[in-house]
Amino acid sequence: MIITDETIKYVSALAKLELTEEEKEKAKKDLGSIISYMEIINELDTDQVEPLSHVFPVKNVFRDDVVVNGPDRENILSNAPETKDGCFKVPKTVE
Amino acid sequence: MKTYETVIGLEVHVELATKSKIFCGCTTEFGGDPNTHCCPVCTGMPGTLPVLNKKVVEFAMAAGLATGCSITRSCKFDRKNYLYPDLPKAYQVSQLYLPICRDGGIEIETSSGKKRIGIHEIHMEEDAGKLIHDDWDDCTLVDYNRCGVPLIEIVSDPDMRSAEEVIAYLEKLKLILQYLGVSDCKMQEGSLRADINLSIREAGAPEFGTRTEMKNMNSFKAIARAIEGETKRQIEVLEDGGKVIQETRRWDDNKDTSFAMRSKEDAQDYRYFPEPDLAPIEISEEWLAEIKAREPELRDAKKARYTEEFEIPEYDADIITASKKLADIFEAAAAICHKPKEVSNWLMVETMRLLKEKVMEPEEITFAPENLARLIEMVASNAINRTVAKTVFEAVFNENADPEAYVKEKGLGIVNDESALRKAVEDIIAANPQSVEDYRGGKDKAIGFLVGQTMKAMKGKADPGMINSLLKELL
Amino acid sequence: MEITKLTALELGKKIKAGEITVKEAVQAQLDRIKEADGAYNCYVTIMEQEALQRAEEVQKKIDAGEFADSPLAGVPAAIKDNICTKGVLTTCSSKMLGNFKPPYSAEAVEKLEAAGVVIIGKLNMDEFAMGGSTETSFYGPTRNPWNVNTVPGGSSGGSAAAVAAEEAFFALGSDTGGSIRQPASFCGITGIKPTYGMVSRYGLIAFASSLDQIGPMGRDVSDCAAVLEVIAGHDAKDSTSMDAGDYKFTEALVDDVKGMKIGIPDSYLGEGIDEEVKQSILAAAEVLREKGALVEEFHMDMTKYAIPAYYIIASAEASSNLSRYDGIKYGYRTPDFEGLQDVYKKTRSEGFGAEVKRRMMIGAFVLSSGYYDAYYKKALQVKALIKESFDRAFEKYDVILGPTAPTTALEIGANADDPLKRYLGDIYTVSANLAGLPAVSLPCGFDSRKLPIGLQLTGKLFGEKDIIRAAYSFEQTRKYESPIKEKEGK
């Protein structure tokens, strides 16, 4: 797999990263070699193999529908860079 | 001009009526000060983990069964990744690959008859937080109280062709969910929200046109207007030789038109993958049977039973069962006073009148069925007459007044003191010689006037039957 | 008697016997940290005041007869900095969480505290646990106490080095692809990666949720077994936590491997392994054979596919788990920005280091539309095949034996420009994470540069007792060696 400038632009946008020109070049090279290496898994025939997402043999882990938490705003907001009126404050999301 | 056909599919998001959130023990109660219904789990703090609320799965199953879906016996959750301030984990836990319900449908009835609307799937997911735009400070404030409230998303097939069908579908869906107790479906509180996928095509064309998606529909009326408005817009685009673009549009109900939402800066690529923090769900035969057995009587069955068991007119049964709230009041009140027809009458006449007058939905009714039942019993036992009863009912309706206490307090009880009534009748006879003469001359109607006059003198607190017999005796 | 040279269990015993007070133990540990950490940089945060205060509380309880069943009561310990400690900085060794004080503690930390352990500080690591050298830490690299020009391994490098350098009696680490075992190997200590689901992940800041496990790191197998006994257990707050039933791991501290069936995968001794490491592992296998175990090589052909499967799955999950660091709810926020997207991009670009960014981009790529099936889904299928190959192996063997890493500790800066080469160093450790299996690394010898070599024993699901028994038995044949005596002339 050859990683192009476009690919780097796309994945850095998905990851919400802003890369310098130097970082882009490095990413292109590194991702190129890493992703190409990953392709050795294509040697394996997996047509009949069910993808295994959960390795642990547990199903149906539930909690009962009970309210156990009270207000905890101070803790919730305690690490926020900026708050206002009991809310997290962010730059305007609409124009 | 060509004839066009509108093709509509809906994605309906319904907040479930659980007490606690989908993955943590925070309350789902509506409102509250910002970020007071939150904990480290639902605000996505590092290292925290979700644990699934069993009731969410059961509500989703119930919704699926009631809409004829097949239940996915082995299902799991997936992560939908996107970064936006209302989504603190930067992913929404949802279901893409194995939604819990698939391939159902419900029958609707419109002016053009009955029709089945297919349900493609129902999946479980978590709601996002609320963004409050602060124009004063030129910023946005984030409140996570709604974040993690359980949702089901009901995705229809593109089977609807008009606003009328869409409304009928939504009404039917809403009733099913309300009857199941799965959701209160309050649109004004956002617990039922519909996204409309709409395209048009030339009548008879086999292919679908390009669709747009409209979000932010907050009432049935807005939905109907949006469908008409967007249909018109798409036709105009095509008639002008243009092309409809697949996009998300925002319906502005005030301006009566839709606007393209500025496409987000980056491409939408949700990178779904199975949620590793949650165990898969396996629905056994027994569990499914248990949920099936718990299914309450739904509207159609209720309607049939009302006409049969309570012998109320089909028209009344239809109106009453059109609201879960009215049906609940009806049954509870009838069970107390054993006068279903009376209950039905109070609901059909006085309740409807007051709802209309106050521009309220039946769901907003606050009076206890016990108070209506007691009022009916008071009328039946002649403790008050019907005229007074109407006044008392207004108090019941408005402030959930206890009718007995109210009548006592306001002194509205019927005067059963015969001597007082006899005195009043004698006075009326003396004061209305003309009517007395008419009556004696054979005009039976004149007695009605005299009864009315006596009632007036008694300030309505008399039993008209008693007045009548006294008049006949004295004349 | 030098307190800091004691094992955790030895210290616990002396505290119970009244020979050492908790405060003395804590003070001795703090003094040792002050003396040595300038050289090794194991700690991100030292909790001096909290620890001294807590020492008094624990002492009171011990004096009142509490903690009778708790052999670790009063013992100071340190925690990898990706495990949440209430009100105490938990940075993941990242600028991104440089000011993050969680309002909750990890379940494993709460369990240690309930057992009377005194938490003394937070340990350095590769940023967000991504790396095998602790060089990617925002707070500078940790150095290997055996040779300060080499890395301690990673990502739990601070944990391993602290234990080896006598800056901690024991530590908690986390292991996503070898992050407990490989640094244990490089630093000449013991570390256990438990069965997935054995220890609650609640409060462990996620790297790759389906692979992460918290585990103990100590100077010997007994300490690790005792710590694991405390931190293991079902936790209702973690849906992937399991009820293993039997948590009496110290019962497996038995010097007896007679009849135990031990398999060595041929592919673990093939291409890429350092010859000195290979010889040391074979010698260790011989020791176990002499003690009565049935040891044999067997064919296992999935090994080379574990690295790509692992890096696809781990990076994918990481890219999702780390998206939440956006400068809004906690952690770093860029000082200058215009608009929301700018906050996101600048905060994340400034807050994360190069390795983390690389993994997030790999993760975004393998999940992105058009590539999901070819990479992510395929990796899950390979994972299934790897698990099957272990299932087959465990039909024949109780324990799988091999090296922990293909080499001993590398020089600081080695392969700095070649991330792929670094990833390949995880070849023997990642399979246990993919298959959810428990594995232990313990020292089995040294190379010619006097750098420790680690022996890895992998067990079946919930087979902790098997690997503890085998490791303990092997350990009885060789004395624990500390780098401190060697390097500091003590």
Structural description of this entry:
Chain B: It comes from Anaerobium acetethylicum. Chain B: GO terms for molecular function: asparaginyl-tRNA synthase (glutamine-hydrolyzing) activity; ATP binding; glutaminyl-tRNA synthase (glutamine-hydrolyzing) activity; transferase activity. Chain B: Keywords: ATP-binding, Ligase, Nucleotide-binding, Protein biosynthesis, Transferase. Chain B: This is Aspartyl/glutamyl-tRNA(Asn/Gln) amidotransferase subunit B. The complex is a heterotrimer of chains A (95), B (475) and C (490). Chain A is an alpha+beta fold. Chain A has a domain at 5-43. Chain A has helices at 5-14, 21-38, 73-77; strands at residues 62-63, 83-84, 87-91. Chain A has a two-stranded antiparallel sheet. In chain A, helix 1 (5-14) packs across helix 2. The radius of gyration of chain A is 23 Å and the shape is flat. Chain B folds into three domains: 4-287, no CATH class; 297-410, no CATH class; 418-474, Arc Repressor Mutant, subunit A. Chain B has a nine-stranded mixed sheet. Chain B is elongated and about 90 Å long. Chain C is of the alpha/beta class and 490 residues long. Chain C has a domain at 3-255 and 463-488: Amidase signature (AS) domain (Amidase signature (AS) enzymes, Alpha-Beta Complex). Chain C has helices at 8-16, 22-40, 48-63, 107-114, 157-164, 181-187, 221-231, 275-290, 303-321, 340-351, 354-367, 372-396, 419-424, 430-435, 464-475, 483-488, and strands at residues 43-46, 76-80, 118-123, 170-175, 190-193, 213-218, 261-265, 294-298, 399-403, 439-446, 452-459. The radius of gyration of chain C is 21 Å and the shape is globular. The two termini of chain C are 12 Å apart. Chains in contact: A-B, A-C, B-C. The interface between A and C is large, with 53 and 72 residues.
List the helices and strands and how they pair.
The complex is a heterotrimer of chains A (95), B (475) and C (490).
Chain A: H1 5-14, H2 21-38, E1 62-63, H3 73-77, E2 83-84, E3 87-91
Antiparallel strand pairs in A: 2-3
Chain B: E1 4-15, E2 52-53, H1 54-66, E3 70-71, E4 74-75, E5 78-81, E6 91-94, E7 101-110, E8 113-126, E9 130-134, E10 139-143, E11 150-156, H2 163-180, E12 192-202, E13 212-217, H3 220-239, E14 248-252, E15 257-260, E16 273-274, E17 281-282, H4 285-294, H5 299-309, H6 314-321, H7 324-337, H8 340-358, H9 369-380, H10 386-399, H11 403-410, H12 418-431, H13 433-440, H14 446-457, H15 464-474
Parallel strand pairs in B: 13-14
Antiparallel strand pairs in B: 1-11, 1-12, 3-7, 4-17, 5-6, 5-16, 7-8, 8-11, 9-10, 12-13, 14-15
Chain C: H1 8-16, H2 22-40, E1 43-46, H3 48-63, E2 76-80, H4 107-114, E3 118-123, H5 157-164, E4 170-175, H6 181-187, E5 190-193, E6 213-218, H7 221-231, E7 261-265, H8 275-290, E8 294-298, H9 303-321, H10 340-351, H11 354-367, H12 372-396, E9 399-403, H13 419-424, H14 430-435, E10 439-446, E11 452-459, H15 464-475, H16 483-488
Parallel strand pairs in C: 2-3, 2-4, 7-8, 7-9
Antiparallel strand pairs in C: 1-3, 4-6, 5-6, 5-10, 9-11, 10-11
Helix pairs in contact in C: 2-3, 5-6, 9-11, 9-12
